[in-house]
Amino acid sequence: MDMEITAWQSLHSTMNAQTHRRPFDRATLRRIGTFARPHSRRIGLYLLVSVATALLAVATPLLAGRVVDAIVGGGDSGTVVRLAVLIAGIALAEAALGLVGRWLSANLGEGLILDLRTAVFDHVQRMPVAFFTRTRTGALVSRLNNDVIGAQRAFSNTLSGVVGNLVTLLLTLTVMLGISWQITLLALVLLPVFVMPARRMGRRMAGLQREAADLNAAMGTRMTERFSAPGATLVKLFGRPAEESAEFAARAARVRDIGVRTAMAQSAFITALTLVSALALALVYGLGGVLALDGRLEAGAVVALALLLTRLYAPLTALAGARVEVMSALVSFERVFEVLDLEPLIAQKPDARPVPDGPLAVEFDGVRFGYPSADKVSLASLEETAVLDTRGGTEVLRGISFRAEPGRMVALVGSSGAGKSTIAQLLPRLYDADEGAVRIAGVDVRDLDADSLRGALGMVTQDGHLFHDTVRANLLLARPGATEEELWEVLRRARLDGLIAGMPDGLDTVVGERGYRLSGGERQRLTIARLLLARQRVVILDEATAHLDSTSEAAVQEALAEALEGRTAVVIAHRLSTVRAADQILVVEDGRIVERGRHEDLLAAGGRYAELHRTQFEGGGGNSTAVVGGSVAGGPAGPVVGGSVVGGAVDGAA
After folding, report:
1. Which is nearest to 123 in space by CA: 338, 353, 374?
2. Which option is the CATH number for 363-645: 1.25.40.10, 3.40.50.300, 1.20.1270.360, 2.60.40.420?
3. Whether residue 637 has pLDDT greater than 60
4. Average pLDDT in the 259-286 region?
5. Residue 174: pLDDT band with limits 50, 70, 90
6. Any residues with CB less than 8 A from the CB of 81 and at least 6 apart, and which?
7. How far apart are CA 558 and CA 541, in angstroms?
8. Which of 281, 320, 493, 569 is most buried per CB count within 10 Å?
């Protein structure tokens, strides 16, 4: 390895290391050990290969010196040939060990990435919804990519580098001192001239690189937002393409300027260090030549010293920056562990019970709830703020109590922000109540097994979210084992079979990011088809038909009337025309149930419900038609309300 390569590697490692001045954290090192323990045999073999490679690296210069001595001393050709064959053999061995070391390094690094990514991914999946509403997706993804890869370098690069370079350094110094201690000491005097500029220039250029990385990250975030379907639509609606282009170009130009400065600084740095290496070699050849002419040193020793010199500076330079690399790796580990140490607010009890069989009742008993503060569910680094907001706990629900018997339905109506969606989110344990209890079949949901609860309870939200995947994959989220016939059956019942069949790839058609290749109504009907496929016994519909036109809404309600028969339903509806036949309507205002009863009774009472009804219908906002058991709303029994079956009675006990 020559001086120029060493210079480049030293500069690169210093530039890319995260400069954090902090002591070694023993707790972090112990935790790293838990991830390294499954790979301990491979790590040990990797270290042995590194040591063997270092030994071979020192042997080659010595053999080269002996070849020169044999030539100068008039030795026989057989000796020269044997030495040359030995050098070739060592080169082959070095190459083979290099491949083995690289294989071990790749397996260690990629294995560690797998373990860390899996651990972080599984842990993040257990986090509550509040965590995802606060963190920046890009920052969270960075933990799974950049920081995990940074931690991986501790094993694939730093670990072997420190051990191999240390062995090479000790062996090289020992051999060089044995050959000529005078030349060795003079060579070491030049070391600060070689190492210090690398560290100083590396730190300076690291600042430029971090600025470029920040600018690139900002541009990446901007492109992600602007290139999504809703983001692009927003830019076009407000007519700002020129301004967006100018702002993007300004940041890109700054990255260009940094790139030019970095390239010139690198070139000047490498030129200077190449000059230093030339001076060091000149010193060896000059002083060594004089000693050789005086008979105090053999000619082969001069050549060996010159070759060993390159082997000396390389590990010394690498070890000089080893602390920075190690600390950088530790920082990456700490950032990964920071996510793993964030305790999920929603935890399953060790003795959790399965949801009982049969029809299920739903009950809210004196439920009070306030959304948790940021410091309980998030990290400042994931929100890109200096300090997390400690505000929180303000009550959103204030003593909510109601009960829906099996197969019956409760409708929640009221002003925006009254707490209706919050009530719905407590049932599937997206959040837990602060006081009181939410029960299914008489069992507190906090005592139920999470998988069993998800299997018994389904929810359709108003945004109709779909993954950037095929129609088939989005449906199979509900029931992975569903057959082709079952998929087409739920599409038929959601009145989507004709649309999907007419697409070029049918069920394998990709719906696009968040389903934006479909219309709002089609997207919502696909989420309802997914609900039909799941066949859950308790159904929550949060404005499930909000994005449907009258024709689509009637078709979907007709399908849901069949699908939800005998199931318990909690429905949130804004259009009161869709809840007039509900078993019980709960009017929610300011986190409280201010009225409850059937449609006719609430109208007669002349309270808040009557006011909402009057406002909607006098303004012409409640004229949508709801299909009721095959007839128009207001007809015979068995209506569909807000996409749910209405029938029987609901216990209105508070």
Report:
1. 338
2. 3.40.50.300
3. no
4. 76
5. confident
6. none
7. 15
8. 569
